[in-house]
């Protein structure tokens, strides 16, 4: 039986209880059926169908190009595989900013068409109206502060956010605002560890960090980065647990050699 086995389904309430009990929350991205099944059966708490699919699945330089239809497709694939984990879907750029009616319509499409459990939005006070409107439909919302990749053209860099006092103060204000609006959790991306710890301790809802130190309630990484499939991306916060780029490359090279030499298929591999 898998690690997850017949363990109870992870819900937003489960994450709140984990924070209260000081139990670290684990979160990874997934975008397809096969890898999502492995991640879920390994016992992960939360699977994020991230708009990072724009980078690792579609080869785009940023997360901006991915569409709502694309995100729903990836979410559908993941939902078919998962039995235990809470599934959160990123709302893509252009599906919620500046238009709370559109935000609600987009979130409803994600939930109805994919069967996922929650959505995630980037930003603070600028998008709180959209968050509140989505919540009126009973759709759980995860917030995202710090480095917000959908705003890359605004910031012009993927460097650490909230280093300056003014931006750090706004982050603290925004995380309280998101909690008050009704978010069940907040992701902190690429911010100073001490600030993330301070913000996390000020909140009753759980916080998930990526490049935000150990003082948060959980951690998230992009699965393809963790597995070493994406080998040119080397941020300070990333720990690679495998080097699949080299392993897969070696396996494909061996297959090519065996076919070209006539070694594959051999007698045992024929009918």
Give a description of the structure.
The two termini are 33 Å apart. The radius of gyration is 20 Å and the shape is globular. The protein has eleven helices and eight strands. Strands 1-2-3-4-5-6-7-8 form an eight-stranded parallel β-barrel, surrounded by six helices. Helix 9 links the parallel strand 6 and strand 7. Helix 2 crosses helix 4. The longest helix has 18 residues. It has two domains: 229 residues, TIM Barrel; 27 residues, no CATH class. The N terminus is likely disordered. By secondary structure, the chain is an alpha/beta fold.
Topology diagram in text:
Elements (H helix, E strand, L loop, with lengths): L11 H10 L3 E5 L3 H9 L4 E4 L3 H4 L11 H14 L4 E5 L9 H15 L3 E3 L7 H8 L5 E6 L5 H4 L9 H17 L3 E5 L3 H10 L4 E4 L7 E4 L1 H4 L17 H18 L10
Parallel strand pairs: 1-2, 1-8, 2-3, 3-4, 4-5, 5-6, 6-7, 7-8
Helix pairs in contact: 2-4, 4-5, 5-6, 8-9
The CATH first-level class of the largest domain comes to Alpha Beta
Strand order in space, largest sheet: 1-2-3-4-5-6-7-8
Q: State the helicity in percent bands.
A: 40-55%
Proportion in β-strands: 5-15%
Major sheet, described briefly? 8 strands, parallel, barrel
CATH-defined architecture of the largest domain: Alpha-Beta Barrel
The CATH homologous superfamily of the largest domain is called Phosphoenolpyruvate-binding domains
List SSEs in N-to-C order.
Answer: HEHEHHEHEHEHHEHEEHH
Strands, count? 8
Average predicted confidence as pLDDT = 94
């Amino acid at each position: 039986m898998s690690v997850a086995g017949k363990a109870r389904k992870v819900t937003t309430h489960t994450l709140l209880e984990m924070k209260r009990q000081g139990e670290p929350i684990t979160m990874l991205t997934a975008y397809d059926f096969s890898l999502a099944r492995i991640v879920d059966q390994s016992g992960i708490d939360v699977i994020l169908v991230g708009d990072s699919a724009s980078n690792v699945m579609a080869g785009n330089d940023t997360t901006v190009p991915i569409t709502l239809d694309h995100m729903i497709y990836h979410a559908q694939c993941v939902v078919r595989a998962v039995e235990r984990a809470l599934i959160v879907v990123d709302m893509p750029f252009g599906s919620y900013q500046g238009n709370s009616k559109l935000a609600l319509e987009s979130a409803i499409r994600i939930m109805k068409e994919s069967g996922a459990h929650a959505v995630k939005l980037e930003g603070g006070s600028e998008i709180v109206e959209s968050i509140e409107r989505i919540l009126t439909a009973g759709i759980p919302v995860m917030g995202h502060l710090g480095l917000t990749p959908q705003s890359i053209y605004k910031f012009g860099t993927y460097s650490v956010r909230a280093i300056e006092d003014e931006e750090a103060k706004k982050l603290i204000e925004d995380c309280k605002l998101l909690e008050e609006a009704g978010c069940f959790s907040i992701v902190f991306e690429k911010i100073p560890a001490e600030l993330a710890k301070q913000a996390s301790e000020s909140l009753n809802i759980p916080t998930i960090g990526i490049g935000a130190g150990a003082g948060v309630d959980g951690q998230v990484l992009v699965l393809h980065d963790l597995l070493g499939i994406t080998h040119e991306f080397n941020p300070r916060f990333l720990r690679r647990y495998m080097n699949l780029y080299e392993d897969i490359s070696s396996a494909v090279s061996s297959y090519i050699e065996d076919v070209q030499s006539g070694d594959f298929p051999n007698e045992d591999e024929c009918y």
